[in-house]
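Entry 14. Ran structure prediction on the chain below.
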Amino acid sequence: SLTAYDLRMVSWLKKSNGKGRSALPCVRSDDQEDELLTVSIIKGGKKVVCGTAEGKLAIFTWNKWEDYDDIYPGHPGSVDTMLRVDDDTVLTGSNDGMMRIVQVHPNKFLGLIGDHGGFPLEEMQFGPVGSNVVGTVCHDNVVRMWDVSVLIDNEDDDEEEEEESSTEDGVIEGGGSIGISSSEKRGYKKSVACSDDSESDSDSIDSDDSGLDRKNEKGKKHGTIKKRIKTEAEQFFQDL
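Output, structure tokens:
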């Protein structure tokens, strides 16, 4: 069964060798058919995932402790240890020596982190804050360090995407937000339209001016030709 204790509420119990203090259980689930070996809290404290001796993940809802709401099979051996990665993902250590990445709701296996050569995996812990390693212990009495930067990188990418989307919505990274009223937007669009019209007008004026210049140049050329012909005729009659 799954039992929850409130460590703030304790009771003095009389022991054979004197007084002792112990916490009383607050809630307790029904007896489960399978043995519960490890526990992890996810989904912002709304869900509790338990690894079982039959290789299943039993998923409880907080404040509904009578029985699990969902169960996810798939591990070939017992799930002896579990480590929370984020609100949707956990690392599981199984009796077959495999360390797996499991997503909860929707339930699916995301991949493998490491293999311990068939030795049952007993414990997993993250390294110091800022490190991208997980330490594991199994039955061969060896402490192994695994690189899990792929998990940390995915979280950083999600945060960067959120920052980029907030920046696009008008949020400056260094401070407050930019507020643009609807009237300002209309004024901005109107000014842009006016500037576009002025540019088109100037382009049309330039094209008209260039057309007039070409006509003037043609007229000058024709006038020069006529003047040159008249001069030759006069010269001819003068020679006679």
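The two ends are 137 Å apart (CA to CA). Will compare against last week's run tomorrow.
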